Amino acid sequence: MSVVHRHRPEPAELDDADRRIVNRLQDGLPLVERPYAAVAAELDLSEGELLYRLERLLEDGVLSRFGPMYHAERLGGGLTLAALEVPEADYERVTAAVNAFPEVAHNYRREHRLNMWFVLATETPERIGETIAAIEAATGLAVFNMPKQEEFHVRLHLPV
Amino acid sequence: MSVSTCPSEPLAEDAGANGLDAIDRAIVLATQAGLPLVPDPWGAVGKSLGLAGEEVRARLHRMQQSGVIRRIAAVPNHYRLGYVANGMTVWDVDDAHIDRLGREVAAIPGVSHCYRRPRHLPEWPYNLFVMLHGKSQAEVERQAEALRERLGEACRDHRILYSSRILKKTGLRLARRPGPPR
């Protein structure tokens, strides 16, 4: 478990082949027998070069992950977005306390009175309420729970 | 991780409401950190679970058809790609119109996530959340202005909350379910 305070990384230098790979693979890998060979052919690269570059893009943190993107609720899990109003003087302590929960998948500082926003992912929907209660006990702050009521769109695609 | 599967033993068919059985869940656990970067990734996943590559591929295909898997894809780091302005825009939209307007806004280019969420009055009046990504705050503000126009009079107020620090990003680890009885 990392409680690393990662600040915003610098934009990466990408060449043309990297850009084609990043753009193409955000759309998805086909479920065919040799999927990387199929994508490499589309991009006019060899399979080996695609795999080599993909590994490097992951190592360099240009891509944070490559693989199946699972739908939390359809896997039977619980998922919610929650926020805290954290006093500035207490920000580091509360960050450590919140991040210590393995159910906290993402946590961002945002500039608003509600200045800490995190995503909770739990094994079951019922565990969301218990985890929120535990975070309130650990931080001494009220958690604003904002579960999605309707999903209109989910599709992150950042062209480069 | 609590799903324990013994590859040499037949796995019980215990498909739950979501239609996943123990083998599907073992595949989820084996791939949630990422897909192997080798010419035959299905075979590599299968090898670690005692399954044929073809079976892994067929099951991933089925999970993608049923929506358990959105897609098998690269997840970019926004900042490393130059998207340094990532705004969570939040809107106070008339409840009578939010379902129609949410769908319309979702179709605007640049929108990655669009959800209806509960208000917490009086502190938090916003019920529509729209993530916008740009190479500058000015770009995100232009996108937000387009949204504002689309929402029209049904929208009373809005804010753009930029992320100023990543405090944690481990990604979702969603498959930790109680395993079969040991």
UniProtKB/TrEMBL annotation, chain A:
SUPFAM superfamilies: Winged helix' DNA-binding domain. It catalyses: siroheme + 2 H(+) = 12,18-didecarboxysiroheme + 2 CO2. The keyword ATP-binding does not apply. The keyword Metal-binding does not apply. Pfam families: AsnC_trans_reg2 (PF17805), NirdL-like_HTH (PF22451). Probably forms a complex composed of NirD, NirL, NirG and NirH. All proteins are required for the total conversion of siroheme to didecarboxysiroheme. This is Siroheme decarboxylase NirG subunit.
